[in-house]
Amino acid sequence: MSKSQQSFNKKEKEKKRRKRKQEKMERREQRKLEKSQNPKKTFEEMLSYVDENGNLTSTPPDPSKKKKIKAEDIVLGIPPKGDTVEESVRKGKVKFFNHDKGYGFIIDSISKDSLFVHANNTLDALQENDKVTFEVKMGPKGPNAVNVKLV
After folding, report:
1. Containing domain of residue 126, as a range?
2. Alpha helices, DSSP H, located in 6-140
């Protein structure tokens, strides 16, 4: 007589396979039950809109608030350097100036920003705490004070 072809290990694997299959069927039935209990949403109910502040909302946008934008007004990338230059005369105070090296810094009286100034851009000799008028131009490393005059 020969031994049975079914070993203990094979029987255990078969039990696990049947159990997984049964659990899968139960999960499927559970999903069907949940789906039948929840009413289906229409396409319009699922839509979301973005309002003028960038927030999601369920109400569609108001066509009367629509803004017209010309394609020529849209700037792609970095704006040209000419657009960022400020030409107005400002007042300020010399914070630091080194005559040996030929540079210093001016504090703007309105914005309290510190601006670089080079000796070539001054019309008068500068000392610390002098009150000055100047113009702002963009340099390679940021805003610079030019046409600096003592007040």
Report:
1. 81-150
2. 8-37, 43-46
